[in-house]
Design goal:
Chain lengths: 240, 105
């Protein structure tokens, strides 16, 4: 018997997947969630064998959700997006990719794959950390906003979020939207203060309020922590 | 013009009338909300948000058997993301047909 959950913001989608699961004796739907955060809270306390997961959800996508899990179980993506198939199969835990509306024959085929699928055990080697030479006086940077160079003091930054072609810099005083990438700004920030915890977020580790397994609270923002970035964050906290 | 139908729901249910009723009820409740939100966003020219609405609506078009409508919704969602809305009239006429269809169920 496989215990599973369904994560999808659409009630119709959850209703359909739940019905499809009821057609397979080996599947036991434990719960359904309309958003990823609720599912993460559930998974922090419960073990599950399989997740039916929508990719396209507001605020927290299916991929964000997978990144936030320490040991993701088998996952079947259920989506109306055909464009993410390649990205999907970069994840070891993703078994299949079902395009909505899902039919019973296609669902049963996915369940056969689930039965035969084993999540590979991968030994990860940490990427060599870049050593940055920091000037003693390097306490701020300037960003170009509407043809003005605005000074931003590092100590005052809460976090930086990737927003497509832009980044959002949240500080104690104000939020700034800057045309840049997370990678570019990461090079400018002092390692001692900042850490990339997710592909879309860099945080100021001095501004952490608390950490709850797969997310970190910075001021009033709950930020997901990627599985791959979590060890580095924990290492930093131990140093504090 | 392609007409909404219950083919997908019937096939999915395998004759389970209770499930058919349940799913139709969910679509009847959820789709008008999604359409209202889509229309609100279009009025404000918030095309990116409207694309999100169309993304959800297109699944419902698939549920009521509109295969061509589903394909059109994919194209419309893509063009809304690019800030265009040339398929609006065609898409809206599909929505009108679907709303009439689900009201009569």
């Amino acid at each position: 018997m496989l215990n599973c959950i369904i994560v999808d913001d659409e009630t119709a989608a959850r209703t359909i997947v739940s019905h499809l699961c009821s057609q397979v004796d080996e599947l036991n739907v434990i719960d359904e969630f309309p958003n990823a955060m609720q599912a993460i809270k559930f998974l922090n306390k419960n073990e599950i064998d399989l997740i039916f997961l929508d990719i396209h959800m507001p605020d927290f996508t299916g991929f964000d959700f997978i990144d936030s899990l320490k040991n993701p179980p088998k996952i079947v993506l259920t989506t109306s997006d055909r464009d993410f198939a390649i990205e999907a199969f970069e994840y070891d835990c993703i078994v299949d990719y079902l395009v909505k509306p899902i039919t019973l024959p296609r669902f049963l085929k996915a369940m056969q794959k689930v039965e035969n699928f084993k999540i590979p055990v991968v030994q990860k080697t940490a990427a060599p950390q870049e050593v940055k030479q920091e000037e003693a006086s390097e306490k701020e940077m300037y960003v170009n906003i509407d043809r003005r160079l605005i000074k931003i003091v590092f100590d005052k930054i809460f976090l930086i979020e990737a927003k497509g072609d832009y980044i959002l810099i949240k500080t104690e005083d104000k939020n700034y939207t800057v045309h840049s990438t997370l990678k570019k700004i990461e090079e400018k920030l002092p390692d001692s203060l900042f850490l990339k915890v997710h592909r879309s977020y860099i945080i100021n580790i001095k501004k952490i309020v608390d950490i709850e397994d797969n997310s970190v609270l910075i001021a009033r923002d709950v930020i997901p922590i990627s599985r791959s970035n979590r060890p580095e964050l924990m290492k930093r906290l131990n140093l504090l | 013009m392609e007409q909404p139908n219950l083919n997908y729901i019937k096939e999915l249910s395998g004759g389970d009338a209770g499930f058919e009723k349940k799913l139709i009820g969910v679509v009847q409740a959820e789709l008008p909300q999604e359409i209202a939100e889509y229309e609100g966003n279009m009025k404000e020219f918030a095309f990116a948000k409207a694309a999100e609405n169309v993304h959800k609506i297109k699944h419902k078009l698939g549920i009521v058997g509109l295969e061509q409508g589903y394909v059109l919704a994919i194209a419309y969602e893509d063009e809304l993301k690019e800030g265009k809305s040339t398929l609006k009239v065609e898409f809206d006429s599909i929505l009108t047909a679907v709303i009439h269809f689900i009201k009569d169920l």
